[in-house]
Amino acid sequence: TQSSGSSGINAEYGEEVNKQLETMGYNIGVRLIDDFLAHSPSVTRCSTLEEVAEVLCKQGFKMFLGIVPEVRNWSSAKDEFSLVITENPLAEYVELPPHCQDCLWYSNIICGVIRGALEMVQMDVKCSFVGDTLRGNDSTEIRIKFVKILEDSLPAGED
Amino acid sequence: MAVCIAVLTKDNCPLYVATDPTEDALKMHFLVHTSIDVIEEKLSSATAANDPRDLYLGQLYPNEDYRIYGYVTNTKIKIVVIETISNPLKDARQVFSQVHSAYISLVCNPFYSPGETITSQPFLQTVTALMRGKAIA
């Protein structure tokens, strides 16, 4: 039993950890993309988000995590989609302790990797978890939303 | 059917003790405690060359109502299983290796620190099922 005060602290703690994980993932992603492209000579520049999703799942995830997530739940404008992971290798054997149960996205590092890697190919996306079987949800699902094409190669935030 | 399964650290602290509700928990704890001496004796006298890495110690000592078996892993985690004479286990070795596997999965959880008391649900469920004599897949 927790007072609302301490669950507030938990939520803050969770948010902080999630952010850190995302940042770690981002730093990995900006480097990983070069490794990926170097080892995937058949991958060409993607012209649609659908192609991006396809390459991400069938080649990216396969190469580094050994799994192929399913692409689902396209938005009507085709600018948003979900990745559904059935067997998350990062979460094998993991059991979240009670204080993390509601606030921590354990595999949030993956979101950062996707965001960082796509930024390096001039694509700005928002990437976040919407469900995780570790937290008792039905499925482990990442929602990816296309924001914009980055026109020049200056770091994000510059115009 | 086992009436008690206990997991102890290398310093002989109890990590987890599960007892069948039909038995007196205190008596089970006492039996596990006394078996520690026997385990230590076996460990110090066993010649390392002969024994396999995961030492199945076999029956530890005779008792009028119970049989007590011991097992120690190469990290000196000890597992003790107690069964009643009236309802013997089919295969004690299998019980030990399944408890050991459950312990390994537990230790792989990044949120569990070795030496902490075990509260993990999957581990507890495995041990409870083993005590009832159900084999785990």
* Beta-strand percent range of chain B: 25-35%
Model regions low in confidence, pLDDT < 50 over at least 5 residues of chain B: none
Q: What strand line-up does the widest sheet of chain B have? A: 2-1-5-4-3
SSE topology string of chain A: HHEEHEE
Give me the strand/helix succession of chain B: EEHEEEHH
User: Shape of chain B, please?
Assistant: globular
Q: What oligomerization state is this entry in?
A: heterodimer
Helix content of chain B: 25-40%
Helix content of chain A: 40-55%
Number of H- or I-type helical stretches of chain B: 3
Major interchain interface with per-chain residue totals? A-B, 7 and 9 residues
Number of helices of chain A: 3
Distance between the termini of chain B: 17 Å
> Structural class given helices, strands, pairing of chain B?
alpha+beta
Description:
The complex is a heterodimer of chains A (159) and B (137). By secondary structure, chain A is of the alpha+beta class. Chain A is built from 3 helices and 4 strands; from the N terminus they run ααββαββ. Chain A has a 4-stranded antiparallel beta sheet with strand order 1-2-4-3, with helices on one face. The longest helix of chain A has 36 residues. The mean pLDDT of chain A is 89. In chain A, helix 1 crosses helix 3. By secondary structure, chain B is α+β, with helices and mostly antiparallel strands. In chain B, helix 2 packs antiparallel against helix 3. The longest helix of chain B has 21 residues. The radius of gyration of chain B is 14 Å and the shape is globular. The two termini of chain B are 17 Å apart. Classes of the chains: A alpha+beta (159), B alpha+beta (137). Chains A and B meet through loops of A and loops of B.
